[in-house]
Amino acid sequence: MSTTKSFSTETSERYALALYEIACESSEIDNVEKNLKELAALYKSSDDLKKFIKNPTKSLEDQIKVVNQISEIMQFTKILKSFLSILATKRRIFFLNNIINSFLKLISKKKGIISASLISSKELSDNEIKKISEDLSKSISSKINFNYKTDQELIGGLKIQIGSIMIDSSIKNKLKKYEQLMLEN
């Protein structure tokens, strides 16, 4: 596996780190994190915003105007408003989603929180997800934040991925193993 990062990834991580350091120095880290989560939700839900951000033909004036309007409407911190303006001015606004993701990963890492994937065959309650998270958190001595979804094709059971570790207790996986054993004999 290659350890080289793409220009997009490396650039996004640098901008995210710069924002993190400025927010820490100004004791605004919690507010900036909250604002970025709100911006991420807006970005995810708005196809128009995605198209605007990813369109390199938009004029610099239009990009700055839109960034300032969003910042005002959503009442972002002064730090984040300035940061977004710099992204637009430097023509790096199309990295916005990657920068947000890099920043949130950095925050989680600094807080000792590990992101993981949890997939179940049926809808789990918030209490069930919390219990699974707490049990795994104890065994790895870090808090786990699950990205949860359901997949009925699993038939039954769970799939959990923490970094490169995969725990697959799904019936679909067990059936696949039995099928493979039968084919080998």
Keywords:
alpha+beta; Peroxidase, domain 1; single chain; 4 strands
How would you describe the overall organization of this protein?
By secondary structure, the protein is of the alpha+beta class. It has helices at 7-25, 29-45, 47-54, 60-73, 78-89, 96-111, 126-140, 171-184; strands spanning 113-120, 143-150, 158-162, 165-168. It has a 4-stranded mixed β-sheet. The chain has 2 domains: 7-109, Peroxidase, domain 1 (Orthogonal Bundle), CATH 1.10.520.20; 113-184, no CATH class. The model has no long low-confidence stretch (mean pLDDT 89). The chain starts with 6 loop residues before the first helix and ends with a helix.
Write the layout of secondary structure elements.
Layout: H1 7-25, H2 29-45, H3 47-54, H4 60-73, H5 78-89, H6 96-111, E1 113-120, H7 126-140, E2 143-150, E3 158-162, E4 165-168, H8 171-184
- What's the domain count? 2
What is the share of helical residues?
Answer: 55-70%
What is the annotated CATH architecture of the largest domain? Orthogonal Bundle
SSE topology string: HHHHHHEHEEEH
The number of strands is 4
Content of β-strand? 5-15%
Radius of gyration using CA atoms only: 21 Å
What is the tally of helical segments?
A: 8
The biggest beta sheet, please?
Answer: 4 strands, mixed
Tell me, what's the shape?
elongated
